[in-house]
Amino acid sequence: MATAPPGFLPVLLGHGSFLKNEYGRVRLDEDGNPLYLIPTSDNFLEMKPSKEAQQFWPADPTRGIPNKMSVVLLSINANTLCKRADVVTEVGYTVYDTASIYDGTRGQKKKLQGCLAPGPRGDNITKFAHTRHFIVKDTAHHHPGTCDYWDHTAQPYHFTYRKSEFIDRTEILKIIEQAFNQASCHGLTPESLNRGHRRAVVLVGWGDEELHPQIKASFWYRNNKHFQHWDMKHHQTAQRFIVQPSYLHCLDVFGIQHRAYGKEIGHNAGNRTAFTIQLLIGLCFLTQEQYALLRLGLDLEPGPKFPGVESVLARDNRPPGSGDLPRGRVPIMH
Questions:
Q1: Residues 6+ positions from 261 with CB-CB distance below 8 Å
Q2: What tens digit of pLDDT does each residue of 154-191 get?
Q3: Which residues in 22-122 belong to E strands, given as ranges?
Q4: Measured between alpha carbons, how far is 246 from 83 in angstroms, rounded to an integer?
Q5: Cβ-contact 14, 46 below 8 angstroms
Q6: Who contacts 145 (Cβ-Cβ below 8 Å, separation ≥6)?
Q7: Which residue(s) pair with 18 in the sheet?
């Protein structure tokens, strides 16, 4: 069952300002959770992460999760044929290991260093996310250029983070299982995996999008292997400023960039999972000035730079029959 994400995420903020008793031990509330000294939100933008913040959340002994093990966020989404919701056409997922905020992670070309101040909307740490996108071969022709359905929205060729991959229909469930396995095993040594250790995975999504039958059929979903399931639609900040929030409207209000080269790219399954994680992180780093704008009913300005790789959208992920690539800057023709 999905729940609203907590409003305060020490695992992301990582400032490590715990209230301690006279013996130097972290003080706990009546539920056994650590008490944090929360500075003004503006200060978060310059604060570097602390290893301490990775060690105290979550700590739920009933689930057997080591309290020194940080969580991994997983967002997963599937798009379908316009007139047949049972036929999946694309799958995308994003894995975000919160330990990378402190330790860094391996990028496509070089290691991304950790211990960075998060910056506005957490822009400095959203880059630690790893996003993948898969197009099902037998419905690869299904895109706005070929579908005449009046309510078509899916954009399989608008993935912007790296080149999309093509899979057979029989591989869909394997990809969905792979997403969770990648998240739950991320960063663990073979020895640790052999001892049965797994990371605590928090599923992050919007509304009922995770409830597609293909995802519900996965072993990890059927057996409730994820630690928690957060619904960003019910995030307390979204509910506070938006009446009956819709997904793209929520991105607009909080300034999460979801356009590239003037194109709306939020209808791609892979991009959607990346934007969902960015929204979760971004809501942790709203400044007092931004809160003031929101209280006036104003949308926040999106970041000046799209967080993906726009050239991938224009040059690599092109629909079948797009023709040869022109030289120089390539406009998005789809």
A1: 310, 313, 314, 331, 332
A2: 889 889 888 899 999 999 999 999 999 999 998 888 99
A3: 71-81, 84-97, 105-106, 111-112
A4: 22
A5: no
A6: 319, 334
A7: 36
Lookup: tokens for 102: 């402190």
- Asked if residues 118 and 298 have their Cβ atoms less than 8 Å apart, the reply is no
Separation CA 86–CA 39 (nearest Å): 48
Which one has a higher pLDDT value, 6 or 62?
A: 6
> Burial letters for 298-331: b for 16+ Cβ neighbours within 10 Å, e otherwise?
eebebbeebbbbbebbbebbbbeeeeeeeeeebe
CA distance 159 to 80: 16
pLDDT the model gives residue 37: 61
Say if residue 116's pLDDT is above 70.
yes
For residue 53, give the amino acid letter. A
**How far is the CA of 45 from the CAs of 82, 281, 308, in angstroms?**
42, 12, 21
Condensed to tens digits (0 to 9), the pLDDT of residues 29-68 reads 777 766 666 566 666 677 776 665 555 444 443 344 444 5
164-193 b/e with 16+ CB inside 10 Å = b?
beebeeebbbebbebbbbbbbbbeeeeeee
Q: What is the DSSP string of 180-249?
A: HHHHHHTT--HHHHHTT---EEEEEESTTGGG-HHHHTSHHHHTT-SSEEEEGGG-HHHHHH-SS--HHH
Residues 103 and 111 sit within 8 Å (Cβ to Cβ): no
Evaluate if pTM is beyond 0.70. Answer: yes
* Three-state secondary structure of 162-176: CCCEEECHHHHHHHH
DSSP for 125-163?
Answer: HHTT-EEEEEEEGGGTT-STTT---TT----TT---SS-
CA distances for 126 relative to 29, 57, 328, angstroms? 30, 20, 29
* Ramachandran angles phi, psi of 81, nearest 5°: -60, 145
